[in-house]
Amino acid sequence: MDDNEKRTMTLNLTPREMAVLEELAAKKDLSKTGVMRLALRLLQAVDAKIQMGQKLMFEDEKTKEKSEMVLI
Amino acid sequence: MQESRVYLVKSATKQLVEASLLDEVMDRHLAMWNGSWSAAMQAHCAGRVLRDKPEDHHWDWKWKAGEWRPLLGYHSFAITCEGELQGLMLVSDLKSARIQAQFGKPIVYVEFVATAPWNRPEIQTPRYRGVGTVMVTAAVELSWELGYRGRIGLHSLPQAEEFYRDKCGMIELGKDAAHQSLMYYEMTDKQAEAFRLGH
């Protein structure tokens, strides 16, 4: 299959999920589809790092406090 | 994989020559990098102390390729001209903007970009000019395709700062302590529009 060929899927979201998607789309200046595609690419990249034994960390810019996000 | 026709300036004749921009670095490009590119870089670096070597002399594109290839958020580009590899670039689309006006919005981030050793003025009279401009244009175009409105960002090696600031019109946001103290640059959607019109 051509790598640029697109396939269609239907996504059913709860009202709350849809509200978050709409909020993120506005915040990120993306379409709702754009947000979902970005989320997929991001999850794949994070998962690949975790598979390699790396950790996903967040650091508070002011306090420098670090916290680890554990993905399932 | 998509191939686009682009143009470089051949220094010897000062004429525009047709080149190919591919939106995927393939094994044949890595073989070219491992061959003539690496050989030219090693020849230039032989006998020089570290500070006199090009800042990217240690970049291993074959190793980098193994890391990025399976990932959807990474995109690689190669430019070939007259049968030789002239430039390589790796970008990601997972980072967000730092400029206040577009803070938090996604950007295409240039992870690595390099022109072949024979195109660098600090090594020899360049065979071709314009590789950097073609690569920045490709990053901006990808940003448009992804819905990022042309926004891009990158950390620049010191010798390329002038190019990004003056030729590309990117905003300089200071040295980044978290990134080897390299200068960080960003292009806004409006700057990207102006850049596209000019190229």
Q: Please, could you describe this protein's structure?
A:
The complex is a heterodimer of chains A (72) and B (199). By secondary structure, chain A is mostly helical. Chain A has one domain (15-69). Chain A has two helices and two strands. Chain A has helices at residues 15-28, 32-51; strands at 56-59, 66-69. A two-stranded antiparallel sheet of chain A has the order 1-2. In chain A, strand 1 and strand 2 form a beta hairpin. Chain A is extended and about 40 Å long. Chain A starts with 14 loop residues before the first helix and ends with a strand. The model of chain A has no long low-confidence stretch (mean pLDDT 90). Chain B has 199 residues and is an alpha+beta fold. Chain B has one domain: Gcn5-related N-acetyltransferase (GNAT) (Aminopeptidase, 3-Layer(aba) Sandwich), CATH 3.40.630. Helix content of chain B is 30%, strand content 33%. Chain B is built from five helices and nine strands, in the order E-E-H-H-E-E-E-E-H-E-H-E-E-H. In chain B, strand 1 (3-10) and strand 2 form a beta hairpin. The interface between A and B is medium-sized, with 15 and 19 residues.
By DSSP, the count of extended strands of chain B is: 9
Shape, per Cα inertia axes of chain A? extended
Distance between the termini of chain A: 31 Å
CATH topology-level fold name of chain B: Aminopeptidase
Largest sheet of chain B: 9 strands, mixed
Please indicate the count of domains of chain A. 1
